[in-house]
Every structure is written in structure tokens, then in C-alpha cells.
Amino acid sequence: MSPQEQINGLTDQLNYYNHQYYQNSVSEVDDFTFDRMLEQLTALEAQYPEFKRPDSPTNRVGGGISKEFATVYHRFPMLSLGNTYSEAELVEFDNRVRRGLDGQTFEYVCELKFDGVALSMTYENGVLVQGATRGDGVRGDDITANIRTIRTLPLRVSDRMGQSPEASTPVPALFEVRGEGFLPIAEFERINKEREDIGEPLLANPRNAASGTFKQQDSRIVAQRRLDCYLYSFLADEEVFKTHEESLIALKGWGFNVSPTWRKCADIREVMQFINDWDTKRFELPLATDGIVIKVNSYAQQRELGYTAKSPRWAIAFKYKAMAASTTLNHVTYQVGRTGAVTPVANLTPVLLAGTVVKRASLHNANEIERLGVQLGDTVFVEKGGEIIPKVTGVDLTKRTDAVRPIIYPTNCPACQTPLVRMEDERGGVQAHFYCPNEKGCPPQRQARFEHFIQRRAMNIESLGEGKIELLIERGLVQSPADLYELTTEKLLGLEKTYPATSSLPDDGSGRSPAEEPGKARTVKFGQKTVDNILKAVERSREQPFTNVLFALGIRYVGATTAEKLVDYFGTMDALMAAPLEVLITVPEVGPRIAQSVAKWFADPDNRDYVERLRAAGLQFVGERKVVEVRSDRLTGKTFLYTGTFANFSREQLEAEIAAHGGKLVSGVSKKLNFLIVGENAGPSKVSKAESLNVPMISEDEFMAMLT
Ligand SMILES: NC(=O)c1ccc[n+]([C@@H]2O[C@H](COP(=O)([O-])OP(=O)(O)OC[C@H]3O[C@@H](n4cnc5c(N)ncnc54)[C@H](O)[C@@H]3O)[C@@H](O)[C@H]2O)c1
Ligand SMILES: [Zn+2]
Q1: Is 18 in the pocket of ligand 1 (CB under 6 A)?
Q2: Which of 86, 117, 244, 376 has the fewest CB atoms within 10 Å around its CB?
Q3: What is the ipTM of this complex?
């Protein structure tokens, strides 16, 4: 391949990865591979400048702006950071700084490099007026509404509010703060557990999840995910602080969330020490980190050092290589998840990785096995990244022997032998996972249905957790959650089983990724007190509101929030069961995918029997209806969005009115929107977006005229 072809190839490929990473929140390769390719391109371009393309990723900040949000221009460009994986290059950086500062003394501030999304927040007279993404560095997306959902981000700051004595610096009239928006790991795992429970595909890692969340059009969805933000930079027209350190202290004093992990370092040796200190300790932090950011402390010196087109010369990111180890893949087991998804798990010769012994690692799905080209007996690389569960990331082909055997993916469910199927994904392709379609009879799926049913947000019978359900199913005491309402003291008292010490519980096919917990022997026992607690909880569950009951049914894609919307709209189980698909689709925030899933579920006679048994058991089938009766079909097939306030309607009333006439409320301005209803104090971004997309805008009066 000629150098020009190489440059072209790398440019196209890196631009594509950048697009996937920043626009679609997907990493198709790991960061190390990406950075190595970028380095290769930089070197080639230096050697053959004549072939360097104007769209080269080497002279641009990686992100872009999207059509879904209004565009904002940054008052100060938002740059990237130079990065390195090696200590030798860090020493070179230190030498460059030293030369650039001509022998002056200087200090560094080291911070953790948080792995999320760069955010910029502008405050005017102490009030948060704008929040934006980095975008291409010059222009970003206006995501103010989403950023406002971050609970730790002050919407208003004042120097008097600060609790610390350092907060004495007055708050400037206009300033900008920057930080990293992220999903705490615990929150990431909570969301994935919920998604797994209702059959939504899992989010890949906390960074991509955070990035995807900030780009949601509906800030109500954003608010349900508890995003957080660590602030690491302050900017204003006038000089407020002399050093970065001072700004961090003041930001904290003004009530911003500044991670306490930063430290001032006198020289590069102390920096190295800081890097070593956090090498594995960073896994104890509540969020994903991928390195250390090293910044020259003095602002005057920062100005002296200046910037390249892409990044400051006074800062660098040291990135940790993902924690990797190599070991042998002995065999693959397959777990069946709550919704029938089959997950292959690598069983490894135990190996030490980032302070824990790893015996099992995720192989994700059949596509991943194919992509890795891995075989049984291979030496594989196992990595621990931002996530808790290690994963197999590659094969050491230099160690492959003749003894390797191909991995034969099962064609039948490992739990119930039903032939596996692949389903279509939302874009019409096939999903990466194979599924066991035997929803009713497959033991792990059946058990998962019970676990779903008893959880707090459903029927709240959690005293039945931890092995008790398994035992009841095994003894034939329950087959369907409706049977729980026929349990008696006589049936339960004295039941007992000891689960052996190894893997019988973790291997229950629950589909949860393989944790590293050692399996201890456990005894499940139904003594008098346990039995009383269970029966009491079952009794109390009869009072759980209809929303919980509907969620408890375990209809695919119907999470707790969707259940609420359905109850608001229909009010009763009977009305919901009678609703044809066309009506289900008109429910606010219920799209065709959910509507179809609901209709299909209620069309199944077994499911209807199940519902009748729950009714007979006395569960709540009536909720509070918040949507008025459908009064006409004048708005049928039309979509609406409103902005501002109205003379004749509250927001809720307006939403109800749209629904009552068959219209559908949508959450963002797009080409598909039929009408934007514009009231007093309308939001400028919605209006200008509607203008640019030629979406008709109507007044309150015009809207009312449509109803008669
Ligand atoms: N895997 C892929 O497909 C893919 C694609 C594109 C980019 N990437 C990764 O993204 C990197 C490029 O992204 P980038 O331009 O955002 O650079 P970067 O993420 O390496 O560094 C700059 C960013 O670091 C963040 N940051 C975190 N903590 C910080 C702190 N304490 N102080 C200052 N900034 C802090 C900020 O968001 C800032 O914008 C690449 O090096 C690559 O590793 C990966
Ligand atoms: Zn099965």
C-alpha cells in the first residue's frame, strides 16, 4: 500500500470511528487501538505532508454537532487533550514545558481523567443559562434542558452560599465552567438491570451510556438517569484566579461538584507518583476513569505555553492501558437471561487482574466470538475497563497450538432445549443475541418472571428472594406468580434445601454476568418467622397500586414508567385489555414497538387466564385515570408539541386535550412533527428549529379551532 493510500485509509477509518463515538455513542474499537491508529496517521502526515487531507482527524477535535439540537458557539474553544500511554513521553512533555517556560519554576495539578462527556456551562449573574456539548470544539449542541437534570449542578450560585471560608471570591457576572458529565457506575448497572428486566438491549459502558443520555431529546428520560458532573475548569473574560488550584477551590466553595481526587505536584516525579497511586485505586471510585490529566498550575504560564490547533500545550492526558492479563480459555458456558437472551461466558484458568482473581469473563454474544476468532484452548487477553465485569478482548495467536477446538454455538437452549432464534433489531437487522423463545416453560425465564413480579417496584414481596422462589418452583408449589396467592403456612413451613458450595446458584441461568464471588454453600429454610413474613408480604401486595400490578406482569418493554403512562391513559385493566393497537399507539410516549408488545401479550389466552387469576386474587386493577375520555378523532394521525404557556390550558390540560381528540404528543421537534403549538414565552430553540425544518407553528386559538 502506498503512503497516500495508507493516509486515505486511516483518515476515513478514524473519521468513521469518531462519528460512531461522538454522534452515536458507540465504540467500535477500543481507545488504545484508536489512539495508535491516530498516532500512525500523525507520523505519516508529518512524513508526507502533501497527502494530508483537509478533513484529517489529526487537526480537529473529534466530535461534531447534531441536527436534533440548536447549535451554540463556544465563547472559548473547547479543545481536546494530547494524550500518551507512556512515561517516557510524559518526560518529553515535561521537557517541552520547561523549555517553553524558559527556566521559570512551575507546578502541576494532577486530576483523574473522568471517562464521560465534556460539558460547558455558562452562568450569567449567578444563574445557569446554558449547557452545551463540546461538539467540534467551536460549536456544540445546546443541551441546557438535559444538563439542568444534573442534581449536583447548581442552577444558581452565589458567593454567600458557599460554606467554606475559601468561597470568599465574588462570583463574576459572566463565567463558564467545564466538566465531565458521567453516569456513576452504580447507576449504569441499575439502568442495565432494569433494561435487562424488560427486554431492552443493554448499554455498552458508562461513557457511551452517558453520551447517549445527554443526547436524548426528552429531558424527562434524562432526569430518570442520575447523571452527575465533576467540574474541572473555570473561564471568564477577566482574570479572576491566578492558578488552576485557586479556581478548583473556589468552584468547590461556590457549590460545584469538584472531585476531591486532585493534587498539586511540584515536579514530574510527583506526577509519576500520583499516576502510580491511582493505577488500581481508581477502580474504587464511583465512576469510570481512564487516566490522569496533568495541567500546568499557573494561568500566566498556561498563556505563555499556548495551544496547538487541537489541544493546549500546557496539559496532557496520561491514559492507563486497560488492565489486561492473559490466560487460557477452557470452556464456554451459556446463560439464559430474564428475557431469554443467551450470553456466552468464558471459563478461564484463574488469573490475577487489577487485584482480583478472574475465572470467568464475558464473551457478549455469538458475533463477538466470531469477531475475536477465539477457540477453546486459546490463550486470551482479559481486560477490565470502565466496567466491573472483565471481558475477553483478544487472542494471543502466537500461543495457539494444534490442540485448539472451535467453539460450537448451541442451536438449542441450554436450559430447556428449545431451538434458539435470533430476533430483528429496531433497524431491521438481526440482533446480536440468540434467544430462547420458550418464554413460559424455560426454567430460568420462568424464575426471572417471579423475580420481576416480587421486586419492590412491582408487588414488593422481596422476602421471597434469595433462593426461596427456586425452591418453591422446584417443589412444584408455584408455577405462575398467581400461585403465590394460594400459599399457606401448611404448604411452606419446614421447607428446606442446601445449595452446594460451587456454582449452582451463580449458574442458575439468571443471565447476570459472571461475578467473581466464591460460591459458598447456602441453606434456604422456611421457619415460622420466614413463613409469616412471606404470607404477610403476599397479603399486603394486594394493596399495591394498579401501576405496580401492570409492571409486575412482565410485558416486554413495559417498564415502570411506561406502566404509569398506560394507567394514566386507560385507568383500568379492562380498558387496557380492550384497547386495539391503533389506540395503544396514541398513548403519550408509547410508540409502535411498545404498543405491539402490549397488544400481543394481551392477545395470548394464557396471559388472559393469568390476568383473571390475579383479578380473582384481589389485586388492584383500577388506577387513577389522568387522561380524559377520547371525545373525537379530529386530531387522529397528527403529532403535536407545545412550547410556552397558554391562556386556556395548563400543560397537563393541553396534553389531555390533544390525547382526547386522538392526537399524539411527541417529545422533540423533528421533520415528523405536524404542529408546534406556540404559547407565551415560547422556547427560542424549539421555535427556531421548527422554522428551519418548516414545521407549521400554530397559536393557542388556532389549536382550539382545530377541535371544533
Ligand atoms: N474507541 C473509539 O472508537 C474512539 C473514537 C474516538 C475517540 N476515542 C477516544 O477518545 C479520545 C479522544 O477524545 P477527546 O478528544 O475527548 O480527548 P480525551 O478524552 O482523550 O481528552 C479530552 C477530554 O478529557 C475529558 N476530561 C476528563 N477529565 C478531565 C480533567 N480532569 N480535565 C480536563 N479534561 C478532562 C474532557 O472531556 C476533555 O474534553 C481518544 O484518545 C480515544 O481514546 C475513541
Ligand atoms: Zn429455554
Answers
A1: yes
A2: 86
A3: 0.93
